[in-house]
């Protein structure tokens, strides 16, 4: 790999690394502090995709779902985590994210140029370059369009991870139903039979253990304090 290409790949990796610091906006808007990052969210989605049962979803490509889970929010390293409560339409969000991703995957756009007003997903893919940049952009576009079985499966994982995280915060804070709005807004919205089964079990857990945050599977009270600071 030529030195110039190598430097672009390193710059691309540094952009993606910013996702470790981008907090998930939905939790911040609910008054929680020191919440999960976008990188945290995408990582667990990738792990969840390993559990998708291909026999239950005709024609699904599990490996593609894993890759899609890992890139679906990549543009947020530039545009931030835009939610329905941010006052930006889905169309505008898509346009901003695409411009950023394309620039990062296909060109050597400078850090200062991207951070000072160049929109978002058309930019990220230019730094990665070549077949890798093209694959990332195609995966992101496929997820955004929500037409294929894989894109719909990954959208289910996106929503389920959010609801699982909501339950974890409710347990940590010992505040049952504190984040009920997230569950209400996504009721009956899952396509996958498998994720629907997970959702049923999660609802059972919320009913049976609304106050239990001490089973050893979650961080200790020091982390609870950080959520409230």
TrEMBL record:
<dbReference type="InterPro" id="IPR006674">
    <property type="entry name" value="HD_domain"/>
</dbReference>
<keyword id="KW-0479">Metal-binding</keyword>
<feature type="region of interest" description="Disordered">
    <location>
        <begin position="207"/>
        <end position="229"/>
    </location>
</feature>
<keyword id="KW-0378">Hydrolase</keyword>
<dbReference type="InterPro" id="IPR003607">
    <property type="entry name" value="HD/PDEase_dom"/>
</dbReference>
<feature type="domain" description="HD/PDEase">
    <location>
        <begin position="34"/>
        <end position="172"/>
    </location>
</feature>
<dbReference type="Pfam" id="PF13023">
    <property type="entry name" value="HD_3"/>
</dbReference>
<comment type="similarity">
    <text>Belongs to the HDDC2 family.</text>
</comment>
<dbReference type="InterPro" id="IPR039356">
    <property type="entry name" value="YfbR/HDDC2"/>
</dbReference>
<protein>
    <recommendedName>
        <fullName>5'-deoxynucleotidase HDDC2</fullName>
        <ecNumber>3.1.3.89</ecNumber>
    </recommendedName>
</protein>
<comment type="function">
    <text>Catalyzes the dephosphorylation of the nucleoside 5'-monophosphates deoxyadenosine monophosphate (dAMP), deoxycytidine monophosphate (dCMP), deoxyguanosine monophosphate (dGMP) and deoxythymidine monophosphate (dTMP).</text>
</comment>
<comment type="subunit">
    <text>Homodimer.</text>
</comment>
């Amino acid at each position: 790999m030529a030195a110039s290409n190598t430097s672009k790949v390193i710059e691309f990796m540094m952009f993606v690394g910013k996702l470790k610091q981008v907090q998930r906006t939905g939790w911040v808007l609910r008054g929680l502090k020191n919440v999960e990052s976008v990188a945290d969210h995408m990582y667990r989605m990738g792990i969840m995709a390993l559990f998708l049962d291909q026999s239950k979803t005709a024609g699904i490509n599990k490996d593609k779902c894993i890759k899609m889970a890992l890139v679906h929010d990549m543009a947020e390293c530039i545009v931030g985590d835009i939610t329905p409560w941010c006052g930006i339409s889905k169309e505008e969000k898509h346009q901003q994210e695409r411009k950023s991703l394309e620039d990062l995957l296909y060109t050597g756009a400078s850090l200062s140029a991207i951070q000072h007003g160049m929109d978002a997903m058309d930019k990220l893919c230019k730094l990665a370059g070549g077949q890798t940049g093209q694959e990332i952009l195609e995966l992101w576009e496929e997820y955004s369009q929500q037409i294929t079985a894989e894109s719909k499966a990954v959208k289910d994982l996106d929503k389920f991870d959010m609801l699982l995280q909501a339950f974890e915060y409710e347990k940590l804070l010992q505040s049952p139903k504190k984040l009920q709005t997230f569950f209400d807004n996504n009721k009956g919205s899952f396509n996958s039979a498998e994720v629907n089964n997970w959702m049923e079990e999660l609802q059972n857990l919320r009913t049976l253990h609304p106050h239990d945050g001490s089973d050893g599977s979650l961080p200790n009270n020091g982390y609870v304090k950080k959520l409230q600071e």
